[in-house]
Design a protein that fits this description.
Blueprint (H helix, E strand, L loop, with lengths): L3 E4 L2 E4 L2 E4 L2 E4 L3 E5 L1 H7 L4 E4 L4 E5 L1 E6 L15 H18 L2 H13 L2 E8 L5 H6 L3 E8 L7 H15 L7 E7 L7 H14 L3 E5 L3 H9 L3 H10 L8 H6 L7 E4 L5 H9 L3 E4 L1 H6 L7 H6 L4 E3 L12 H11 L5 H11 L2 H7 L14 E5 L10 H8 L5 E4 L2 E2 L2
Bound molecules: zinc ion (ZN).
The site of zinc ion has 6 residues, from loops.
Amino acid sequence: MNIKILKAGYIYQDGEYLCDSAIAFDKKIIKIDSLENLKELYPQATVEILSDLTVIYPGFINTHTHLEFSANKTTLEYGSFVPWLYSVIKSRDELINSCDDLVMSSAINDMLRSGITSFGAISSYGSDLQSCIEAPQRVVFFNELIGSDPKMVDVLYNDFLERLNQSSNYADSLITPAIAIHSPYSVHPIVAQKAINLAKHKKLTLSTHFMESMAEKEWLDTNEGDFKEFFSKFLSQNSAVTSKEDFLNLFDNYSTHLVHATQIDNDDIKKIAENNHTIAHCPRSNRFLGTTNLPLKSIIDNKIKFTTATDGLSSNYSLNIFEELKSALMIHSDISVELLADELIKSVTKNANEVLNLNSGELKEGYNADIITLTLPDIPSTLKHISLWSILHTKEVDSVFIAGKKVL
Ligand SMILES: [Zn+2]
């Protein structure tokens, strides 16, 4: 592959914005230096000079989405978690059946246009595997395990294993198999433990929805609340299969990506930090399903790594990461807007890479050349606000490179 050199007004590296620099890459990033030095080092390289208002970022990484529910627009009921869940159960077959490859590839393209070069796809049925294989992006394919009824768990576990094996057959593609445990309330701890042991044994990335709604917290803590009727009606279950604490203990010493975590308290935060778990922040999904805000300030103060993620179209109106970043920026008024903007850019680059383990998300020598460019509307008066202005003024990016190849 030919070496390419890109020069722009700014290059984002290690949380800073470098001026007057250029980046050389083939499939991997080779070097960041002045244009003159790079031209001298790589005289055969193709050079592209972008605008002085252009910022070069590592490709953004969306750690949590559900492509199989991409057909939802005006079907599922928003506002509160359990009524939404009833509407999912009522319309699930219709939504899954109408979610064909075209619907999923459109969702994948929306991500791409907003600069997402890698994503984590939670797959409940495996029907999104083909679309993920064909996607231009890197995909961490999270095969999801669900099942709380002891009579059903073996069948469901075997189905999960089959899907996991199926997704492991594409070593030459950009797909990496991974494991997702649905949630503390929906997975029996015996099979959850089995799947966690398997993740450890195969060194697979592990994720779980955790403390998403007030209903979940109440059910796990007291066996009461909105979930009571739901579980009695659908599963003849009068109490939760586990407690919050016992569930979280299952993941001790194996860094796990906890999705939502809006209802965590200080003890949970301490435990999450101790075990190097990470958190996926999905502000729009949380808002639409009626939950309270993630305690993001405390998460940052406790040095817990978080990502900003779109969740699926089952609880969102788009998979555009800039829309997600803007929403996150608006709701955490206890964090200064400048610091928050920097943290948010980090959340979809360096942090998200550490969660999905892709060797992307940073513009550093030897990392994958997953690169995006966007252009600010005017000359920034200070470097301190480039994260903020990038988030505020961007709807879609200008160009996208994955493994050095221009895909947009
Ligand atoms: Zn989810």
